[in-house]
Amino acid sequence: MCDFYQQAADVIEKLIEKKGSIKGLTYNRNVNVKTSKTCYALVCETLKYKSVIDRIIELTPGLDKEFKKNKTIKYSLLVVMIYELLFSSNGKIKGGGQAKKLLSHYQAPINSALARMKIQKKVSENIDLLPDNIRYPITLPRYVRVNTLFNNCNENCIKDVIDHFKNVDQFELLSKPPKLQTKSITKDNGIIEQQTTIILGEKEFYQDLDFPEILIFNHAVDLHDHKMLLNGQIILQDKASCLPSFILSPPPGSVCIDSCSAPGNKTSLLSAQMKNTGKIFAVEKDTKRCGTLIKLTKRSHCKNIETINDSFLNLKHNDPKFKDVEYILCDPSCSGTGIVNRLDYLLPTKYSSDEIVTDENDEDLDEILNQQGEKSKNSNQQKQEEKLVLNKKDLKKEKKRKLKEMKQQGGNKKLIQQQKQKDTKIPLIPIKTKEEIEEEEKVEEEKRVKLLADFQLSIIQHAFAFPNVKKVIYSTCSTHQIENEDVVKRAIDELNKNGEKWRVVKILPHWTNSRGLPIYKNSDYSIRMTPSKDYTIGFFVAMFEKINQENNITPQIIENAQKDIKHENNNNNNNNNNNNNNNNNNNNNNNNNNNNNNNNNNNNNNNNNNNNNNNNNNNNNNNNNNNNNNNNNNNNNNNNNNINVKQQTIKNSNVNSEESNKKHPKKKLKLK
Ligand SMILES: C[S@@+](CC[C@H](N)C(=O)[O-])C[C@H]1O[C@@H](n2cnc3c(N)ncnc32)[C@H](O)[C@@H]1O
């Protein structure tokens, strides 16, 4: 047997056991680069087909058992070899060996299982058996954040990094964002979707227009062992993942808590915002991940961090050391459905992690789900589980009954033998239709997401209760409404019930293209990043702010309005960029219109007059928005008028944040 198979199988086994990342496990071996590359490619391709191969094994009677009996052949090796046999360009297993011999006995039933799967899915090509996210992967650019703490917060930090990439690594800095390419793809369910990507050459990069610390490279640029990464000068962090720290923006000297902090990329950005002054309590429940947090924040030159290896939920609100805490970042564990650019999303569990190169998600989800599950497991679920066990038992009973019947009827030995053989071909688990499997998976996923949402809510509710907290930011890398807009609504409803004065802040108001879903009044105050539109991972951010009872105007309202004015001044000088954005703009209008339709549907279901009124207002706002977007070819005179209106708004200090946001004229789009 070829060595590559064994190497790839070892890597896959370790990945399943969450013992590292694909790159780490393939390149850390003591083999040459060429061998590592071949192994890496084989691992990636096998993982793409893993769910299909698992199903083939399930549909091939006896195969699984045979391999389990044979203790020398691992399951991961079986998967690699079936990939090679059915899906590689070779179409056969190279070399000899015991595994190949065993597998060749099953070649016919394996081929027939594959054929059955294709018939069931009504496809003719193997590639069409793959799920949508694997068939149409979204390629995101490589985001690099310059660490402004480097070299004692040297003011030339960003320039030094850009110069290094230009002069040492021979990259070309583009003076403006590159072109976008949009393609239509038809998904499994027949829906046609638009996917937009950034066209960047392999040796090109550019500086983000919103956050100058962020540099954007071609997705294929590999910086995992770059000198500037290892010495803490740069951090590999998706733009979306930087948003919570940028938006919370604690001033130098303040006191913060990062409630779920490992591996610490948001913590180190908070630290940079605070210029290494004040204090950040970085809380992390998982001991191993806490170790990574300490290592990475040290590497990022953070000096204002105190790590706490405990559950945030165990922190006491009356502990004197938290009395000055004003800012809290909540980035709790989530389903991770927004992470589209990682190879390990191909693994059997979506909840896996590559803790060195990416900051999102974590490995303790099973524990969280178990804990939340214990609280909410209801009798319905139990009944369903019992039913499944019964199904298996019934099947065995049925086999026995048939044989007994034949014997009683005096059936001859040959026939009984044939029946026995036929029966062993019936898999123990009843074969379910594709629809049944999909439905079951959907129910299972919904159950998991609900448990996660309860956990996420408990984290932000714990944050609200610190005595002097002013701002709480909440984020997830999930695309589920249940974990995002719904958690925000549940949190604010709870606060209102208890008579506490908190509001959701309209963050980054000029980002008209990436708002939260318009499900309820002001749910679009939050930010929702979508890979196919924003070229970042899928991400959600919302910010809560305590209302100062004496004066309803909060610093955030003034800050937002000032940012809008600055932004529109920039826009006057930036006609070209805005013209490029017209395409996005139209997409956005379509999205808004779709969302409006959803809104109306929701209203009908609710039969609630007040809600209808609110949503109609929303619709009107959205329609205005569309009109404004359509007229987006920079009318400078209008802009100047807008600025005057906004300056007026700042002066008028008797309006609350929601009102003031409504009064703001709609903003122009900005390329992100
Ligand atoms: C999404 S990750 C955080 C990523 C991190 N904010 C970053 O940007 O680098 C969630 C983290 O929360 C941790 N966690 C989960 N439950 C927790 C709890 N009750 N208290 C503190 N940390 C928790 C997980 O172990 C995981 O490291």
From TrEMBL:
Biased composition regions of type Basic residues, renumbered to the chain: 663-672
Coiled-coil regions listed in the entry: none
Chain intervals with Polar residues compositional bias: 409-419
Tagged with keyword Protein biosynthesis: no
Positions bound to S-adenosyl-L-methionine: C260, S261, A262, P263, G264, N265, K266, E284, D331
Key words, A-Z: Methyltransferase, RNA-binding, S-adenosyl-L-methionine, Transferase
Entries under Pfam families matching the protein: Methyltr_RsmB-F (PF01189), NSUN5_fdxn-like (PF21148), NSUN5_N (PF21153)
Active site: C477
Claim: Methyltransferase is one of the keywords in the record: yes
GO biological process: rRNA base methylation
Residues of the SAM-dependent MTase RsmB/NOP-type domain: 132-547
Biased composition (Low complexity): 570-642
Molecular function via GO: RNA binding; RNA methyltransferase activity
GO CC term, one of those recorded: nucleolus
Residues covered by region (Disordered): 372-391, 400-419, 566-672
SUPFAM superfamilies hit by this protein: S-adenosyl-L-methionine-dependent methyltransferases
Protein family (similarity comment): Belongs to the class I-like SAM-binding methyltransferase superfamily. RsmB/NOP family.
Record-given protein name: SAM-dependent MTase RsmB/NOP-type domain-containing protein
Protein source organism: Dictyostelium firmibasis
